[in-house]
Fold this sequence. Notes:
The chain is 15% helix and 47% strand. It is globular and about 45 Å long. The strands form 2 sheets. The protein has a 10-stranded antiparallel β-sheet, covered by helices on one side. The model has no long low-confidence stretch (mean pLDDT 96). By secondary structure, it is mainly beta. The protein is built from 4 helices and 13 strands.
Amino acid sequence: MSDLLDEVLEAHGGLDRWKQLTTVRASVVGGGELWAMKGLVSDREPRETVASLHEQWISVHPYGAPDQRTWFTPGRLAIEKLDGQLVAERREPRASFAGHQLRTPWDPLHRAYFSSYALWTYLTTPFHLAMPGFSVTEIEPVKENGELWRGLRAGYPAGIESHSTVQDFYVGEDYLVRRHDYHVDVAGGFPGVHYVSDYVEADGVWVPTTRRAYRRETDDGPILDQLMVSIDVSNIRFS
């Protein structure tokens, strides 16, 4: 790991504490313009999310009906009843996005796949960068709001499903993540800039509760009138 990543992990609660934990639960409320672009209806209903910290698994409830949830692992996305009865399933769901552009319509399984890998990425940041197979190096800093934010570039291994195989994270003077850049490969590869804020401490881990993702200009600045995804997180519990 890079020296900067060591500092970032420590600022978020430390790798030793993270290794003592296995699961995170949180209430998540989403919004933004992306859903309408995909022909989907967005709502502000809180959803209970539970995710594994050390392998890529996540479930979100409710999804599509009060008695339904999603169930995501790499290579498989399912919608099922709370008793485990299968409603719908897509094996190798990434392949279903072939040829998609920004406004290509999504079905419920497309949306569930995107939301699942994205939420897992966010809820385990920055600690998943210390998992086997990741390559992390320090990159040039960026200036934001009169501050200089140092940067980390992460290469994602084949076994982890996320926005893109290369993603950048920028941290403030306190080493907490402030910004996350990536390309959304499942939606035509458009560049995104994702700001995180309003950190809280939960069971020894520091977690942002406000996330705002925008389309990114070619000069790396956000298009502030295009809020693609908003996420508000509350009631965060680790176990």
